[in-house]
Design a protein that fits this description.
This protein is mainly alpha-helical. It is built from nine helices and no strands. Helix 3 runs antiparallel to helix 8 and helix 6 crosses helix 8.
Length: 236
């Protein structure tokens, strides 16, 4: 196990305060940055509810049963693509394990379900929910596209928060390790946003998001059984 750990993990995480770099200004700046990101995310998550407060049905409507099933299928297909990528793209294998492996690994179902049920709802509100506001105010044009890109970049960067300890200890190495998975996260926003645009509802991307994360977590656990060298990430 020790040899696979050294081979697969380029980032060494300090185990105690004496081993960590004593760069207090950087630590303060990074923590403030994450605090700002979380504050912006919270404000954006509440924005759609406030904007559509007089008719929340414009935000949370199901359309037809077929559309709901289609949304879930989109999430499942995205999860299947992710499973194929685990085998085909070596740079992403370690990155996804590093960023979210500790959430999706064995015996993590309570943590995973909590993050999926609550976290995905909040994420959909401040991403695709804000997209619906833009569509209502500006239509499908350059302004909406610019706002879409900005909020989804914020959403993507926020995932580095899963590895704050590593970021404080080795900022450059941590960002480099996260980048492949962050790129996939940003790319995943395209089909999720398409669902919001097509059905004019946050429910459909939310259902797809649920299907994606739960299905991929199951696929990932199966992958771990075949790739035990990735399991060391689950310890952090």
């Amino acid at each position: 196990m020790k040899s696979s750990r050294n081979k697969a993990e380029p980032i060494q995480v300090p185990t105690n305060s004496q081993e960590r770099p004593k760069n207090r200004p950087l630590t303060v700046v990074l923590k403030l940055c994450f605090l700002c990101i979380r504050s912006v995310e919270l404000a954006l998550a509440l924005a759609p509810i406030w904007y559509f407060r007089n008719n929340l049905g414009l935000l949370f409507h199901l359309n037809t049963f077929t559309s709901v099933v289609a949304a879930a299928i989109v999430g499942l297909v995205m999860a299947i693509i992710g499973r194929v990528m685990l085998d085909k793209i070596s740079g992403w294998q370690g990155s996804v394990s590093f960023v979210v492996g500790h959430i999706m690994g064995p015996n993590r179902w309570p943590t995973l379900l909590k993050k999926v049920l609550l976290g995905n709802f909040a994420e959909e509100m401040f991403t695709r929910g804000v997209l619906l506001i833009c569509l209502d105010k500006y239509g499908l044009g350059s302004v909406t596209a610019a706002i879409w890109l900005a909020i989804h970049v914020i959403w993507t960067i926020g995932h580095i928060g899963n590895r704050q300890e590593n970021l404080l200890a080795a900022p450059k190495a941590t960002v480099q390790k996260c980048l492949p998975h962050l790129a996939v996260i940003l790319a995943s926003s395209i089909p999720l946003s398409a669902l919001a645009i097509i059905f004019s509802s946050v429910i459909h991307p939310l259902l797809a998001h649920y299907a994606l994360n739960i299905s991929f977590a199951w696929f990932y656990r199966r992958y771990l059984a075949l790739k035990p060298s990735e399991q060391h990430y689950l310890q952090h």
